[in-house]
Amino acid sequence: MNEGPEPVVPMRILFDEPIPMDDGIELRANVFLPPEEGAYPVVLAVTNYAKDLPFCQGYPESWEAALLVAPELGERTSGKYISFEAVDPEKWVPHGYAVVVVDARGVGRSPGVIDSFSPRESKDYHDVIEWAAVQPWSTGKIGTMGMSYLAVSQWLVAGRQAPHHAGMIAWEAWNDMLRMLSYHGGIPSTFYRSWSDSQVRSVQHGLGSRGYRNRFTGRLVSGDVELSQEELDANIVDPYVQVMEHPLDDEFYELRKARWDRITIPLLSVGSWGSVGVHLRGNTEGFMHAASTRKWLAIRQSRGTFAGMYTDDGVDLQRRFFDFVLKGGGDFASQPPVQLDIRSARDDVVERRAEQAWPLARTRWTKLYLDVENLALTDQPPAGEQAGSYKGFDKAGLTFLTEPMAEDTEILGPQAVKLWASSSTTDADFFVSLRLFDPDGEEMLFHGMADPNVPITNGWLRASQRKLDEAKSLPYRPYLSHDTVQPLFPGKVYELDVEIWPTSVVVPAGHRLGLTIAGVDFDHGREPVLWGKSGLELRGASIWPHVDPLRRPAAVYDNEVTLYAGGDRASHLLAAVVPPK
């Protein structure tokens, strides 16, 4: 890669185009256009990671990791204009698209206060769409595209129904801040604490020469002005402090949730099986509940954190969708409503399958009962009542195993766990992991979001937030109301429902499923991996650990938890078993 600013493909670039907001702030956009004058459909993203910071410069370890699994990321492009989690303009402009990447308020070269996923931010996004629609280089057909942050914000802006918002691709995107990111099953996650410090403050507007300088163009990524540290601190809302002030589902979260009834534009929701704990549930829930009559779901195997969006296969899927909704052509109308990568026990794709619904209509919901005395998962509940205990902060917890599978068995979809349990204190946190073991008892691990070694899938529950929203709950997807705290009476037995996030795996004959129930994050016991800028040690729980001692005090959560099975307390896993077609 040479160090000059020239792209590989011919295109015109407009840097720092001003976009006026209704309060006088001007956001800044980079616009990438075909060399020929004319009007083009627009692929647009609003980023919180700075439009002028190249992916390869800001996240070199992730860039190199992505190139290893998707070398085409670096082909037919200079790679100099890909900002983190946004599309590569050089892969789109030659196909007759304009690409617009905008710095969100307070980020990069856009002034203002950073308030992630706030109503102010989604209002800005709405106005950016309408600005792009009336530019002389635009046909007025605006499609939004991006991954993670750049996808989550799409769920929010889609509910505002901007007149020129013609379609959206939510690639890896949660849409319920409380349930999918900040509090898993009511248990507070510390993800926001490391994310804000390492990824947002580092590109805040006003850093000037103290921030990044684009090594290809020489532009100061965070603007030409230099603010004092006091001014910088005043211009960002700390998201971790913010969500910790809101442990229950209240108006704060209502203003930051997708409004399903108002999302009517065509949408493509793309997730990956490894995004348990952040995006995957949002991708499936978005597909299930958005009001759009033209919507598609695709779930891919995890190929590293970012590679999937930039593979030739991923770009082809994106382009066919936008050719259809922005240009009115192509063959995307024949795309099946649901397309799934089916994973093997070794995390390979054994099949890319077309389906008509999610979850699959032919799913055989199968109860596997906990046998506490024998630490087994069985087809029938134990005849008499059983009980077994573990210590809250003991990593091992209790693990229950099936007999070796008599034949290959496909698990595909959401799962749920029903527990009867008691605590020696007034609360208990339940970390539930679905696992796979080979005939020699060795655990088979999978590539997760950022973490290369995770179990099949996970679920979580804080017992004091066990209350269900009966109107929204499904047998395979219990839905917690999170509107009240109900402390436990020590020693009393409670019925608890734990949502287990969706997954796909074909369990080979001779292998065993395992279900671990513990009071701490899953830990595979192997050598940890360090995650990028944050310095987090990844041990199988990916990048959203639940380790804040102020919100998980040992006096309450390092307790004695007792699980019950058999009789009237038939604790069980509800597994999504899919028979062959």
Folded structure, characterized:
- The chain has helices at 55-58, 60-69, 89-92, 119-133, 149-158, 177-182, 191-200, 229-234, 239-244, 251-254, 280-289, 307-310, 312-326, 554-557, and strands spanning 12-20, 26-33, 40-47, 98-103, 138-147, 165-171, 183-184, 187-188, 267-272, 295-300, 338-343, 349-355, 364-371, 376-378, 386-391, 398-401, 409-423, 429-437, 457-462, 494-507, 512-518, 529-531, 536-538, 560-565, 572-577.
- It starts with 11 loop residues before the first strand and ends with a strand.
- 19% of the residues lie in helices and 29% in strands.
- Strand 7 and strand 8 (187-188) form a beta hairpin.
- The protein folds into two domains: 12-172 and 186-248, Rossmann fold; 364-577, Jelly Rolls (Sandwich).
- By secondary structure, the chain is of the alpha+beta class.
- GO terms for molecular function: hydrolase activity.
- Keywords: Hydrolase.
Structure described in brief:
This protein is an alpha+beta fold.
Largest sheet: spatial strand order:
1-2-4-3-5-6-9-10-11-12
Contiguous uncertain segments of 5+ residues: none
Q: Could you tell me the strand content as a percent range?
A: 25-35%
Terminal Cα separation, in Å? 48 Å
GO molecular function: hydrolase activity
Domain Xaa-Pro dipeptidyl-peptidase C-terminal: 319-574
Protein name: CocE/NonD family hydrolase
Keywords: Hydrolase
